[in-house]
Amino acid sequence: MARGDEVTGGAGGGVPPVRLEGIGKAYSGTKVLEGVHVELRSGSVHALVGANGAGKSTLGRIIGGAIRPDEGQVVVDGRPVRFGSPLEARADGIALIAQELALVPQLPVMANVFLGIEPRRAGFVARRTLRRDFEALVARWGFELDGDVPVGSLRTADRQKVEILRAVASGARVIVMDEPTSSLTPVETGRLHEMVEALRREGRTIVYVSHSLSDVLEIADTVSVLRNGRLVRTSAAAGETEERLVAGMFGEAPAAVAVDRPASTGGGTVLEVVHLSRRGVLHDVSLSIGAGEILGVAGLVGSGRSELARAIAGVDVADQGTIVVGGEARTIRSPAEAIAAGIAFVPESRKDDGLFMDLSSAANTTIVGLREVARRGWLRRSAERATTRALLDALAVHPPLPGARVGRLSGGNQQKVLFARWLFVRPKVLVLDEPTRGVDVAARAAIHRLIVELAAGGAAVLLISSEIEEVLELAHRVIVLRQGAVVRSFGADPAMDEVMEAAFGLAGRAG
What we know:
Elements: E1 18-27, E2 30-40, E3 45-50, H1 56-63, E4 71-76, E5 79-81, H2 86-91, E6 94-97, H3 109-113, E7 120-121, E8 124-125, H4 127-141, H5 156-169, E9 174-178, H6 186-201, E10 205-209, H7 213-219, E11 222-227, E12 230-236, H8 242-250, E13 269-278, E14 282-290, E15 294-298, H9 305-312, E16 320-325, E17 328-330, H10 335-340, E18 343-346, H11 350-354, H12 361-366, E19 374-375, E20 378-379, H13 381-394, H14 411-425, E21 429-433, H15 441-456, E22 460-464, H16 468-474, E23 477-482, E24 485-490, H17 496-503
Parallel strand pairs: 3-10, 3-11, 6-9, 9-10, 15-22, 15-23, 18-21, 21-22
Antiparallel strand pairs: 1-2, 1-4, 4-5, 7-8, 11-12, 13-14, 13-16, 16-17, 19-20, 23-24
Helix pairs in contact: 13-14, 14-15
């Protein structure tokens, strides 16, 4: 669906709604954007692509008012602006859907969608009108959401839908979407693409930040490629290929080839889950993982995959069942008890459940093993920094600064910091829920190599991913969850169509 033969693409003529002139931004002395010039046109989809740390999310957040540039100028409708917040940008018709979602968890879906633009009567929120507007919005765009449910109770994919509807409801003429499909199913992604096309036909401008190059080539008019904070080129999407984009992003083909699974160590069972249940989400789940083994978990969104991971990691408490680590039955009712048992957890949402976004990389890395960098009860800052820097270097985190605030890192680098935490303590069990969500091809390959290395070192790995290809590539065995129960088990290298049939309920339950 890529359209247009002009570099600017799109339908709009005259003054562009947004123009970026010489944009620069630095953190802790390290430049993340330098001299970037980009022009957006009305009625077009303008994609930003680049490796993790290339600056594309930072550029999107500058457009959306979440970050102020250190250098250069943002020009809206021909006039220079200096937004101090996303609220100021929204008042100028620019809405930002950030990768790390900014919703009010205590408020219901409906209130979040219309937050700040609620229909009012005599100074009070007109609730009937609000409900009618919400139902019309959901019906038009095809996202199934209960308007009365608190946002905090939703899975990540549904929170992403709330953010998308919020931007659309605001009537914004420029919408910045940062990794909008990272938690969506293929069906929901298709629906989002239809929404983007409809918004484009209405004359709105979409800034589409994504690691999915196939998505970009399908829906974009124009693509800007960033590398190490600099603009490589802006061109018509119709003239691009995935190979050309990758070459632009990395300068040369990255080491993104499939990794080899580690050979089975032949060790004994490290993790055993027996008859694990949690009301409404998990039903009598049993599994076992040996030393050096990667067990993949497949299933549709809502099948209970994340709920299983959270129960094993102590984030949610199971109603019944037993968790055995290294032959010892453990009581796990909190993440602290799981860590004490040797269980590490990389959650689906690094912002909500994984990282302390306002703390440094060093603090996030060493927080589960402070005794290792302490003496007589006092934290040795020099030892903490040296240990963290070595881990960040090994994981190719850019920039590898132990003191850098995690919230300022790219999504892929944030994910690597999570892995650095567990490399620091070398757990017996590693529970991974969407470990490569929202990362580029190079970071994905690096994370895959790390998973394989941890397994080769004797760790038992539980791998959950919405991408069935990722599960099949890495796992020694695969189980399929549906409606909170294990419906099928496979040995090595199962056929993808059989796994998907089981996930969709088209295959009978197997023991």
